[in-house]
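Reviewer comment 2.1 asked that we show a complete input and output for one of the modelled complexes. We chose the zinc ion case, as it is the one discussed in the main text.
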Amino acid sequence: MTETRPLPALDEPDTGRFWQATAGHRLVYRECRACGHVEFFPRRHCTECGGMELDERESAGDGVVYSYTVIRRHQHPYFRARAPYTVGFVDLDEGPRILAEIAGDPDGVRIGQRVAVEWEDHEELAVPIFRSSPPVP
Ligand SMILES: [Zn+2]
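Response of the prediction step:
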């Protein structure tokens, strides 16, 4: 039997909305109406001011690598079979910082590198994975 990727629950109160949107290849975050704080992941309240009125925004999926690490060993069979692979923080152009896999040769990943989202489709959601993209002119 081939191991499959462990997937998040779609009915979790705070993160459910984010994962539901991924089914349509939409990378959503929230912005507070009261203070303008960019909230990611898209919680129900603003973690800056406690405000409860937040508007949903959508990222185009482009950003830069803030930091990363290369996973060479993993307990879970699915991830063990993927190793070595890269996981990193990506600063999206709209402001949110997202933790995600960065596809491609781990030796090719650099801090500050431009990346763009790609989607790994599953039945009810898609997993955002980033890949190197050409620099913005
Ligand atoms: Zn706020």
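The chain has a mean pLDDT of 93. We note this here for comparison with the apo prediction described in Section 3.2.
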